[in-house]
Specification:
It contains seven helices and four strands. By secondary structure, the chain is of the alpha/beta class. The protein has a single domain, classed as Uracil-DNA Glycosylase, subunit E (3-Layer(aba) Sandwich). It starts with 17 loop residues before the first helix and ends with a helix.
């Protein structure tokens, strides 16, 4: 597994300062939300196209770099207190990595008129699990043992930020919460044709 806030991706990072950049961006993202009426959207694990390089779950570099403004996804939706930075090498993805799930989730918040500052995006396993034979630019399902490790972090996050409700994004995330004492609603994951159901179920929860 890869911890984006304390480890360097020697093959794909821009340099040794990359973890510090990602950590700073996560801190700013959370700082601007603590104290709000918060809902936590919980997916399974960080992916290489999202939090691996931004430090923020379900958030891609293209959003932070303003490359998705044509979809009304602006960097200011994520945070405003510091200047967003990429941490992947420009030679790998000139416009930065983009993650389909990130685009759908942020797009829904914008389209529905919900305030993004009232949401924290997180993962049941908050680090990036990858396939050793394929390298960092791959994803894998976290093991049961890994998920248990991640849930302790989740409980701490909920306590520190004052999250009011948790919504599991996908069956895997919902299953990971079973027996943890965390009361959560669940919606369809947007992958594999699930976007309409994802949007419909969230709209039903928020009445929008």
């Amino acid at each position: 597994m890869f911890n984006p806030w304390f480890e360097s991706d020697s093959e794909n990072d821009i340099g040794i300062k990359a973890p510090k950049i990602r950590k700073k961006q996560l801190e700013q993202y959370l700082k601007e939300r603590i104290g709000n009426n918060l809902t936590l959207l919980l997916a399974e694990a960080i992916g290489y196209q999202g939090g691996h390089f931004t430090g923020i779950p379900m958030t891609s570099e293209r959003i932070l770099l303003g490359k998705l403004k044509h979809k009304s996804l602006y960097p200011e939706l994520v945070f405003t207190g510091i200047t967003p930075q990429r941490t992947s090498k420009v030679s790998i993805k000139p416009e930065g990595f983009t993650e389909p799930t990130a685009t759908v989730v942020w797009g829904y918040l914008v389209d529905s008129g919900l305030d993004p500052n009232n949401f924290i995006l997180w993962n049941a396993f908050p680090w990036h699990p990858y396939k050793p034979d394929k390298g960092m630019l791959s994803n894998r399902t976290p093991s049961e043992k890994e998920v248990i490790m991640g849930l302790e972090v989740l409980k701490s996050l909920i306590s520190v930020t004052g999250v009011q409700q948790v919504i599991a994004v996908g069956e895997k995330s919902k299953k990971q919460l079973q027996g943890t004492g965390i009361n959560a609603k669940a919606v369809r994951h947007p992958a594999n044709g699930g976007v309409p159901k994802f949007r419909e179920q969230l709209s039903a929860i928020f009445g929008v």
